[in-house]
User: Fold this.
Amino acid sequence: QSALTQPPSASGSPGQSVTISCTGTRSDVGGYNSVSWYQQHPGKAPKLIIYEVINRPSGVPDRFSGSKSGNTASLTVSGLQAEDEADYYCSSYASSNNYVFGTGTKVTVL
Amino acid sequence: EVQVLESGGGLVQPGGSLRLSCVGSGFTFSNFAMNWVRQAPGKGLEWVSGITGRGGDTYYAASVEGRFTISRDNAKNTLYLQMNSLRAEDTALYYCAKFLASGWPAGASEIWGQGTMVTVSS
Assistant:
């Protein structure tokens, strides 16, 4: 099972929006609505911020939103804040009964 | 507070074995599938293995199939990962994580521990 493809980096100024893509295949992202997104600050454990493509866990700001079209899922962070600077990973359930993570995207707040 | 806490990491020689443990608290352990995710130093996340809430079904990444065994003792609220025939490429921080659901697929990993480091080196 190959890792999902994410851009290595993304950036934006405070208050702007940044969108991260996550590209897979019909066997993972395109085949299931089981796409999730995780935020990881340096030296910390990942934190779930989006599940089932569009849903936010309790406590996650509505600045974070998810979507999916075909084999590509996306995470949008609106109104960027300094604390949003982190690594972001997508994940999807796959037809092999496994889960697969994305390659990760480092978001920089300029 | 819902949390999971890993232990059991350490330094092991290539070909050796290690057993990781993960204790869950603040939730009904048997009602949720669990999984292990690892992160090599400076690298991304890699899903390793998962198990349903009652422990009847287990799943593995191709990279560890046949070498690692996931199990759970719901009476002790504990998840395990038995790692055999360890290789240098297994060196990573191993996270235990609670899924949102009991069955499979189990949704997203809702709660993560802080990880336990496994180093495979001679």
